[in-house]
């Protein structure tokens, strides 16, 4: 995205499967989206942030059966956990959609009918591998040691199905990808995806008839394939003509996804959308441009736990609720945003967590606030001093400096911009020694230093607000919730950051 782009933004998380409770991976995607949403809102961009839960399909039906409850009971219970996690993490979702809602089901049926009308659907028999865990079909050539490429178990299926003519899209899709080099972030993953498509797409089975937990396809005994159902949440949630126009048609659409679900979002989703615009005879790159030329698939890596993949069976999953209860929300948000080089995998360890929080927040930003406000209260009458002074730190607009990094999804570097600025401010404290100036009667000079430092803190709390909303609220209160200016009254400083106890 370039800095001139002023379109509205529609940001989405994947809708989460409700077969289990939320883990750190879910929390991560939601926090990244929330960070971006808050950032773009600060920039004055209208931003709509959507999340929700993915509730149909065999995986959910099987889990409910194992638990001895009905699928909808399972969905109600677990969807509530995901919604509550969003609240716990202070995520500013504009809507939270469930695929069992009427608005969604009605919309998907309408889209299905359009796909049929446009000539993209035919009836046949699926013979091949299926993984219930991934809710994905796999080609024989993809099976490694009897398992899916993801490591999930697969089973052989032979069942009547409706197919979507995905194979017809191979060349046009590749042509469109060439025109749109930023469609998938990061580029490395886009290249992998292109190689997959170059291998040739096969028609996609888009209905199931051996179980019933899904959206019924009218006049058949089939239910919709869960990914077809799920992907349309991104449109069904925009359930008024105004919302649809503002946040789909006229917007930049950013789908945040984990690296494991790129194929669904960057192959199936654009082809479904293009198929709504054309027939097999009129298929063209223009149909893709029209349907999804404003869309970007932004993929992130995986969180590992002490270097290993997190899994329930290894007992090394990190529970986001426990984590925020133990350390507080801001620390968890900060670490998740700061640690990974966005797009790559990252490792979660208590040591890493503690050392970043202590080194970067408590010792750097925390110290700066502590020292500056203490002096402002003690020696400047608890007021932003009225002085005229120039200094390089006063020339900086941190949000503007972070912007290019955020637009390139280099979130860790965007936060580093703030840290570097805070370090410079701390250096100024060391060099100017304002406490000594006040002691020796150099009030004016002392006030000048405090003015610069207060400005720096103000910049920092604004710039870091999308990552640390609680810190932002705390420090804003010290500034009496006013904009930075001489004469602003300063309220007492609460504890800036709690020390971190890892055990
Ligand atoms: N329901 C589908 C998405 C449908 S979107 C139309 C789904 N759900 S999921 O609950 O299994 O996964 C949701 C997201 O969590 C995915 O983006 C996935 O990549 C992410 N993560 C799951 N485990 C993860 C980690 N350990 N680390 C980071 N993210 C990971 O897929």
Written description of the protein model:
The structure is a single chain. It is elongated and about 90 Å long. The relative contact order is 0.11. The longest helix has 30 residues, at about 350-380. It is of the alpha/beta class. The chain has helices at about 25-40, 60-65, 70-90, 100-115, 170-180, 185-200, 225-230, 235, 240-250, 260-275, 285-290, 320-325, 330-340, 350-380, 400-405, 410-430, 435-440, 445-465, 470-480; strands at about 10, 15, 45-55, 95-100, 120-130, 135-140, 155-165, 185, 205, 205-210, 225, 250-260, 295-300, 305, 310, 345-350. Strand 2 (about 15), helix 1 (about 25-40) and strand 3 (about 45-55) form a beta-alpha-beta unit. The model has no long low-confidence stretch (mean pLDDT about 95). The strands form four sheets. Strands 1, 2, 3, 4, 8, 12 and 13 form a seven-stranded parallel beta sheet that branches. A four-stranded antiparallel beta sheet has the order 6-5-7-9. It has a three-stranded mixed beta sheet with strand order 15-14-16. Helix 2 (about 60-65) packs across helix 3, helix 10 (about 260-275) packs across helix 11 and helix 14 runs antiparallel to helix 18. It binds 5'-O-[(L-methionyl)-sulphamoyl]adenosine (MSP). The site of 5'-O-[(L-methionyl)-sulphamoyl]adenosine has 19 residues, from strand 2, helix 1, helix 7 and strand 12.
């Amino acid at each position: 995205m370039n800095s001139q782009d002023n379109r509205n933004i529609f940001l989405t998380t994947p809708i989460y499967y409700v077969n289990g409770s939320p883990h750190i991976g879910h929390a991560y995607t939601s926090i990244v989206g929330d960070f971006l949403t808050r950032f773009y809102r600060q920039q004055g961009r209208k931003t709509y942030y959507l999340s929700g839960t993915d509730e149909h399909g065999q995986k959910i039906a099987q889990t409910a059966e194992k638990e001895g409850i009905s699928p909808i009971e399972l969905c109600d219970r677990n969807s509530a956990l995901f919604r509550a996690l969003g609240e716990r993490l202070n995520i500013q979702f504009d809507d939270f959609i469930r695929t069992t809602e009427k608005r969604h089901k009605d919309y998907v049926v309408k889209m299905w009918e359009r796909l049929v009308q446009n000539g993209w659907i035919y009836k046949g028999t699926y013979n091949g591998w299926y993984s219930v865990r991934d809710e994905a079909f796999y080609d024989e050539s993809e099976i490694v040691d009897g398992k899916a490429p993801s490591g999930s178990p697969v089973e052989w299926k032979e069942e009547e199905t409706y197919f979507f003519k995905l194979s017809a899209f191979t060349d046009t899709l590749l042509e469109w990808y060439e025109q749109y080099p930023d469609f998938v972030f990061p580029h490395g993953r886009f290249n992998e995806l292109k190689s997959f498509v170059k291998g040739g797409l096969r028609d996609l089975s888009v209905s199931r008839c051996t179980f019933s937990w899904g959206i019924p396809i009218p006049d058949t005994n089939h239910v919709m394939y869960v990914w077809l159902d799920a992907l349309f949440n991104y449109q069904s949630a925009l359930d008024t003509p105004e919302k649809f126009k503002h946040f789909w048609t006229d917007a930049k659409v950013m789908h945040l996804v984990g690296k494991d679900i790129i194929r669904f979002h960057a192959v199936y989703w654009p082809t479904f959308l293009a198929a709504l615009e054309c027939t097999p005879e009129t298929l063209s790159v223009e149909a893709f441009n029209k349907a999804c030329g404003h869309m970007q698939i932004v993929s992130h890596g995986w969180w590992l736990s002490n270097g290993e993949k997190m899994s329930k069976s290894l007992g090394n999953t990190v529970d986001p609720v426990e984590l925020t209860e133990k350390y507080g929300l801001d620390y968890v948000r900060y670490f998740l945003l700061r640690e990974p080089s966005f797009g790559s995998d990252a490792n979660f360890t208590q040591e890493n967590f503690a050392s970043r929080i202590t080194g970067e927040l408590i010792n750097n930003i925390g110290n700066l606030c502590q020292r500056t406000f203490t002096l402002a209260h003690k020696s400047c009458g608890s007021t932003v001093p009225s002085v005229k002074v120039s200094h390089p730190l006063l020339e900086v607009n941190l949000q503007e400096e972070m912007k290019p990094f955020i637009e390139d999804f280099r979130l860790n570097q965007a936060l580093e911009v703030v840290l570097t600025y805070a370090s410079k401010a701390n250096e100024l404290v060391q060099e100017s020694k304002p406490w000594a100036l006040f002691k020796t009667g150099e009030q004016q000079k002392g006030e000048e230093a405090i003015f610069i430092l207060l400005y720096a803190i103000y910049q920092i709390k604004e710039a870091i607000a999308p990552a640390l909303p609680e810190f932002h609220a705390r420090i804003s209160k010290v500034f009496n919730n006013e904009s930075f200016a001489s004469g602003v009254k300063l309220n007492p400083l609460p504890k800036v950051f709690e020390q971190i106890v890892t055990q």
